[in-house]
Amino acid sequence: MLRTVFSSSFSRGALLALLALATLPGAAAQQPIFGVDPTVESGWTKLLRNPEVSSTFRVRAAKTSYRAGEELILEVDFRIQQAPVEWYLEGVHSENVPLRFESSTDSIELLGLAEGPQGKVVPDPLLDGKKVEKHFGEVTFRQKARVRGDAAGGKLDFEIKVRGQSCKEGSCDMIRGVGHALAFEITADAAAAAAEPARRAAASQAQAAESTSATDGAAAPVETGFFSFLVFCFLGGLAMLLLPCIWPMIPITVSYFTKQSENRRGGATSLALIYGFGIVATYALIGLVTTVWLGPKAAQDFATHPILNLAIGVLFVVFALSFFGMFELQVPAFLQERLNKVTGGGGGGRGAGKGRIVGTVLLGAMFTVTSFACSAPVMASIWAIGFSTGIAWMVPLGMAVAAVAVSLPFVILALFPALMKAMPRSGGWMNTVKAFLGFVELAAALKFFSNADLKWDWQVLTWPVFMAMWAAIAFGTTLYLFGLIKLYHDDPSGQVGAPRMTFGLVTGTFGLYLLMGMFTAEPMPDFVTSFVPPKYYGRPHAVEGELEWIESWDEVQRVAAAEGKPIFLDFTGVNCTNCRLVEESVFPHVEKELGNFVLGRLFTDAGAKQDEYDAMKVALGSYGLPYYVILAPDGKTKLASSEYERSVPVYRRFLERGLEAARSGKGAAPQAEKSPVSQAPQANETAPREVPPPTHGESAASGELVWYDDLAQAREVAQRTGKRVFLDFTGNYCIPCKAMEKKVFPEAAVQEQFQRYVLVKLITDDVKVPGSQAKQDYLRSINGGSEQVPVYAVEDASGKLIEKLGGKQDLQVFVDFLKRSAG
Known about the structure:
About 45% of the residues lie in helices and about 15% in strands. By secondary structure, it is of the alpha+beta class. Strands 4, 6, 7, 9, 10, 12 and 13 form a seven-stranded mixed beta sheet that branches. Strand 9 and strand 10 form a beta hairpin. The longest helix is centred in the middle third of the chain and has 29 residues.
């Protein structure tokens, strides 16, 4: 009985250790923060300016005095109103408007993101699937901070400011830096002050590394999500099981565990769990060592660094050749001999149990090292994709997850040994798996070669060349699977079974699909477009009669001045996947409209003027990519702009509106004194996102409905036409606003009533857009001091408010409001 109890408890303990190890790399990125004895706190303060919402928050610290250079914890408590109307607060990890804290003084630095409980996470289809984290009721976040080493001694007064968004059913309200005052007594420290310059220099370098790749996809879906990456790693681990240096070892190793358990305490399951622990530990250690060796900046530079991409591409080719059987990757002899010596010992007596545990862990490590010849290509793929996410700790985490998949069969078969009889025996099918993975490695290598080619502007791997090479790889895979091509390790007399024929048909069909894509104007699907270079890359050198894109701002200005045409600027990046998606899925359908402009394509991550173009993009209203701006022929007057938008009708209206503004001679910010909104540089400019195309049969490109983003200009039109002005106060991150714009606005009854108004859209929640503060002030002036959106208002041409309606509305209520207010 004692032996049975020991074995059972030991198995559970080892299983918990195995699962815990797989989560260590991720846990390392989120270190727990100790609790706070709240001896210093600010009082409860209103969170929102809306007088009807009672949500409050406060800030607490552990003590009243700190030494220069000392770290501290700030606890921020929130009480979110739950009655009579339920509100929620977006959390730290929300993909819409994440909660953030700021310090009002340089003497107190906030370190990293705040930590707290995970809220309710809801993917929202109105935000293109972004996950919104919601907190209800009371919640506390802990923010790690530090007193600067060179902080002066004495009393320090400062504020902790909160930024984010709080919503209820039907409307949202931005939290705009609401502050809480704290007072600390600071003790100066000469040693900390002397070390502060070096510490701040190191922190600045780390911050610069973190922002290196922040421009790609700032306004669009993330290319590789966290969970999809983990799934890829797990599937990669399962794929490694099929390789010839791993599959045959499974029954041999499990049989060894079973035999060892016959005469020794601790069953086969316990030994298998310890063995799996060794595998996971070794994989995670490999990922951790490579991450530390390359440094944190590598994770940020990987996606755009041409030398790194070129090196990874070469490495993938080497692995592909190894899979084809041209040579075998060998583990260094000294390492294998050392492991054999360590794991070869046995013995009994006291300490034998501990020695057997250590020996079994080392056996798992030796298995990982000796199987490197087969597993290295898959491990390299996980490494490359992990680094391309821009998060360094993803690499060891991905390695650990893949290792869990590899170790699972050892544990399962140790629990159920009878299953080994059902396992397919080793044979030629394993060589087929290796060769198939070799073709996959070749295709993956082309992506990395293409990244380097784009960065250096070699124009070798252009769209047709890349597509042709991918098609050739697909056809080569088909020929191999059909048995028409033999590799070094294949049996000349081997038979081609149904599985090989099926996979061969799939790869052959994919090759034909790629060839067809070379000769059609229709855009390819996203899973192809996100990997291949843009269609325009290299084509101006070989194709005539198509739209001409100019990649120099000086040349764009010269041509526009000579031809008198407005300017369309495409701010893009050589490795910006979302830019490719717009260029391939939208631009071919709006070539007629684009032909009315002088077209400029300015790269913000490559070329001698990348910094200049990036600063120009920011000055025009956006920090992210892609970004599209329409300017007057003088190159100085901004007419309209758009970020990521893949709806062709919406994008066409954006171009038509910009062209109409250019022909009318009106810029983005006409001079007017009638509204504070008109005094800002023409705002928003996310107009192409404004209203979905009509659903009742009207041509979305016909331009019947024109949305203005400048109130003064709209009032001028209202005076000429005798119409009233409809104002839509909305937000880029407001879910109820999106619900109205995507579900209510396109309805035929609403579209009919919109014809009676001059339409204005004012986005109030994007601080990056010039004039956003004026829009917020105007919203508060007609909304009782609240910035809650959406708000719909109707005024006459003189600016007199007729009626307003707040929050998300039912269709009939909204239509009645429009009918009643039109006059």
